[in-house]
């Protein structure tokens, strides 16, 4: 929002929320009806029918730029600005598709009012030439002065400051403007479109190509990594007056009073508003190499739909805790395509980059879904991918690699110990984060608790929790007989006194892991607090009980570049397994934490608090879910 919002700031359909797309329904329906009702042998008006598919194409085009930009900036090569993106920017830019809806409505309205728009040819050279000349001449000139006017304090405070709230830009930042400002831009860009239509030189390619050109240049100019190779300017020197670069426009967002031009810097040269550091920043960005991370967290995809929740996916969706959306079934072709790509693609990929204190952090993902980790024939492939990531990290001199989700599964690789046995000489330290996960669960149990129920499949974390509780005098009631026997065999006689088979279910504190079924949850009394010790949350079947988060902590405020949620966790909350790797590097611990290795739980918990990570209280978690 601008600092002093002016009239026509809000979009007319804001009140419709996610249902705003219904404003196009009458027009799309009418175009389909025109196809169905046409007489036999009559000509099909392709231009009319293609409007809606073209809008979808524009959305896809924008999304490709979003994903590419986030991937490239996460890797770090050719990055322009080091400043970070936070949740407030994602929230401000989540309605980037509003301008596509506006254009769609105006296209349909223009078609109905202008007879010359009917039955356009696919190609006309004269129309393309005319559009090009109009853009180079009046459009670039008029935009330059409109842009300078928008930087006058009156218009800037009421409109354009909303766009400049984003210092570090993403591709979609290019279209984040108040409604009135977009009207002004449309009237400007409408000049070549209307001129070619009135002169009957318009074609589908000239109209669609011009809009695609605008989208392409807008997205490129705001992508925060330099993409234009130097050879283009050395081969054709005048090009520097005709095409800007991402670093060129980035200076406008940091300096505000320079580099006003739309896509062609020529008017900045003419009117003396060229930033003197434009060439220097361009060359510096081209040569820039991404910093090697100190800590890498290795995760994986969860469900087929989780590809959209990655930071590389839908920005607004990734900024909220993961939940399945009803409209995803409409996207099944894209989901199926992404599954095929991940199936074929045989290498980890970069998801996210963060900075904390003096550490550079990076998150990588294994292109495998949760269900594949339980397929016997997939385990060797998955282990090879994990091992490859570990060896690559070792070669790059990375200090710590933490194993997230099922990448540390006991059946898969014995909590990572397999890799240490195969490569005892590696310098990178492997961390499964079990010690901190145990500490988080223990400190999530309400003070004064004297007994708990332990259910779900046993794990390294579950065994350590049971041991700590029994040694501390808390009664642990095992939900299943076979788990009771396994736990008892691992406890000392003194501790085993506090381990009991669960014959009654009066305790309202249940510590649960994977495999907890519906019937077992129904045994819990009303008001029970389910505290997971597993990587994945249990399936919720009780509305009269409370389900706590999987082991996690709140990140410090100075933890940088946090603009997406980690799976199902709330904003700025990070899993214990991921935090453990960061603590390992901050404390300079020189041991692996994998296999049966466990660190001192109190020591790890104290380290997490000392570095600013905060526990999630039951009360705050209840408020976040309300």
> Per the principal axes of the C-alpha atoms, what is the gross shape?
elongated
Q: What is the helix tally? A: 28
Helix content: 40-55%
Work out the number of β strands.
14
Q: Are there runs of 5+ residues with pLDDT below 50, and where?
A: none
Percent of residues in β-strands:
5-15%
Main pleated sheet? 6 strands, parallel
Question: In angstroms, what separates the terminal alpha carbons?
Answer: 27 Å
Strand order of the largest sheet: 8-7-6-9-10-11
**For the CA atoms, what is the radius of gyration?**
29 Å
Secondary-structure-derived class? alpha/beta
What is the average per-residue confidence, as pLDDT, rounded to a whole number?
92
Please describe what this structure looks like.
- This protein is of the alpha/beta class.
- A six-stranded parallel sheet has the order 8-7-6-9-10-11.
- Helix 25 (518-522) links the parallel strand 9 and strand 10.
- The longest helix is centred in the first third of the chain and has 26 residues, at 125-150.
- The two termini are 27 Å apart.
- The model has no long low-confidence stretch (mean pLDDT 92).
Topology:
Blueprint: H1 25-36, H2 46-49, H3 51-75, H4 87-92, H5 98-113, H6 125-150, H7 153-158, H8 179-198, H9 204-221, H10 230-235, H11 239-242, H12 246-255, H13 266-271, H14 278-287, E1 295-300, H15 306-309, H16 315-318, H17 332-344, E2 349-356, E3 359-366, H18 379-396, E4 400-403, H19 410-413, H20 417-422, E5 429-431, H21 434-444, E6 451-455, H22 460-471, E7 475-478, H23 481-490, H24 493-496, E8 499-501, E9 509-512, H25 518-522, E10 529-532, E11 546-547, E12 552-554, E13 573-575, H26 576-586, H27 601-610, E14 614-615, H28 618-625
Parallel strand pairs: 1-3, 1-4, 4-5, 6-7, 6-9, 7-8, 9-10, 10-11
Antiparallel strand pairs: 2-3, 12-13, 12-14
Helix pairs in contact: 3-5, 3-9, 6-8, 6-9, 12-14, 21-22, 21-26, 21-27
């Amino acid at each position: 929002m601008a600092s002093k919002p002016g009239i026509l700031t809000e979009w007319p359909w804001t009140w419709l929320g996610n249902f705003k797309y219904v404003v196009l329904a009458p027009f799309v329906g009418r175009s389909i009806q025109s196809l169905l009702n046409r007489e036999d042998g009559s000509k099909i008006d392709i231009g009319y029918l293609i409007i809606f598919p073209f809008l979808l194409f524009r959305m896809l085009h924008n999304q490709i730029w979003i994903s590419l930009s986030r991937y490239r900036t996460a890797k770090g090569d050719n990055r322009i600005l080091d400043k970070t993106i936070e949740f407030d920017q994602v929230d401000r830019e989540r309605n980037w598709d509003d301008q596509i809806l506006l254009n769609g409505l105006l296209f349909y309205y223009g078609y109905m009012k202008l007879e010359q728009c009917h039955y356009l040819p696919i190609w006309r050279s004269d129309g393309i030439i005319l559009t090009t000349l109009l853009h180079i001449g009046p459009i670039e000139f008029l935009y330059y002065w409109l842009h300078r006017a928008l930087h006058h304090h009156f218009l800037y405070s009421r409109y354009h400051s909303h766009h400049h709230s984003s210092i570090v830009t993403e591709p979609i930042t290019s279209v984040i403007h108040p409604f009135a400002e977009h009207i002004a831009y449309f009237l400007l860009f409408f000049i070549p479109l209307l001129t070619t239509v009135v002169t009957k030189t318009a074609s589908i390619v000239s109209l669609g190509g011009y809009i695609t050109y605008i989208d392409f240049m807008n997205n490129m100019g705001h992508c925060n990594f330099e993409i234009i190779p130097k050879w283009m300017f050395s081969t054709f020197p005048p090009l520097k007056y005709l095409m800007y670069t991402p670093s060129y426009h980035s200076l406008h967002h940091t300096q505000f009073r320079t580099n006003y031009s739309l896509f062609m810097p020529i008017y900045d040269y003419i009117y003396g508003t060229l930033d003197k550091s434009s060439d220097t920043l361009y060359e510096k960005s081209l040569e820039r190499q991404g910093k090697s991370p100190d800590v890498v967290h290795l995760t994986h995809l969860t469900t087929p739909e989780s590809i959209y929740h990655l930071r590389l996916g839908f920005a607004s969706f990734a900024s909220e805790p993961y939940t399945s959306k009803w409209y995803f079934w409409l996207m099944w072709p894209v989901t199926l395509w992404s599954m095929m790509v991940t199936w074929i693609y045989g290498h980890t990929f970069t998801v996210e980059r963060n900075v904390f204190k003096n550490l550079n952090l990076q998150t990588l993902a294994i292109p495998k879904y949760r269900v594949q980790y339980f397929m016997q024939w997939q385990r060797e492939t998955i282990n090879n991918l994990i091992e490859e990531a570990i060896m690559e990290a070792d070669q790059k001199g990375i200090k710590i690699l933490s194993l997230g989700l099922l990448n540390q599964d006991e059946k898969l690789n014995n909590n990572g110990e397999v890799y240490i046995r195969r490569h005892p000489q590696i310098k990178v330290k492997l961390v499964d984060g079990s010690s901190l996960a145990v500490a988080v669960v223990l400190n999530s149990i309400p003070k004064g608790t004297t007994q708990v129920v332990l259910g779900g499949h046993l794990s390294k974390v579950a065994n350590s929790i049971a041991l700590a509780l029994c040694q501390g005098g808390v009664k642990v009631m095992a939900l299943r007989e076979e788990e009771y026997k396994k736990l008892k065999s691992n406890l000392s006689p003194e501790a085993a006194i506090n381990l009991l088979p669960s014959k009654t279910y009066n305790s309202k504190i249940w510590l649960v892991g994977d495999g907890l079924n519906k019937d077992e949850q129904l045994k819990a009394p009303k008001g029970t607090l389910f505290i997971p010790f597993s990587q994945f949350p249990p399936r919720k079947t009780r509305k009269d009980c409370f389900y706590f988060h999987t082991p996690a902590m709140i990140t410090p405020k100075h933890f940088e570049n946090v603009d997406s949620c980690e799976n199902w966790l709330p904003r700025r909350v990070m899993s214990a397994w991921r935090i453990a790797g960061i603590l390992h590097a901050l404390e300079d611990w020189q041991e692996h934490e994998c296999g049966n290795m466990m660190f001192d739980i109190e020591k790890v918990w104290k380290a997490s608090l000392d570095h600013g990570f905060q526990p999630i209280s039951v009360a705050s978690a209840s408020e976040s879910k309300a």
